[in-house]
Design brief:
Length: 136
């Protein structure tokens, strides 16, 4: 980050823009911060679930080439059990649909968080103008 000195005009403008931070303003700033942290965690969760879904779909595609009579090792917890191909394919399909439901629920939460953050941004920028930076 490059540092520079403020010009006399900028310094005067900053001095005039100083507003007292009220308790309600600080609460909004804190809430915005918590929402931003939650947003970051949910985005990471979405990436993880997308990778899981991609892996399950890739495995399903690979199993299409397998022999119908062949037993396939399927991981349950820490152990692998040998199951018939149709049963493994069904379990993979269930896993994929479960992940899709989870992703849609997470996306809905993320949407709500972003709407609330935008509302807080509007309020805080209206009060503090350029004195506050809420860009994430």
């Amino acid at each position: 980050m490059q540092r520079r000195m403020l010009s006399k005009e900028d310094e005067a403008a900053v001095g005039n823009d100083e507003l007292e931070v009220r308790r309600e303003d600080q609460d909004k700033i804190n809430k915005f911060s918590r929402l931003h942290q939650r947003e970051t965690l949910l985005e990471e969760d979405l990436k993880t679930r997308a990778k899981e879904k991609e892996d399950l779909e890739e495995i399903s595609n690979e199993l299409e080439l397998a022999d119908e009579d062949e037993k396939i090792p399927y991981k349950l917890g820490d152990a692998f059990i040998m199951l018939p191909l149709p049963e493994v394919q069904e379990l993979l399909a269930q896993g994929t649909s479960k992940i899709e439901k989870s992703v849609s629920a997470t996306e809905a939460k993320l949407h709500n968080i972003r709407e609330e953050m935008e509302s807080l941004k509007v309020d805080l920028y209206a009060r503090f103008g350029k004195s506050i930076n809420l860009e994430t």
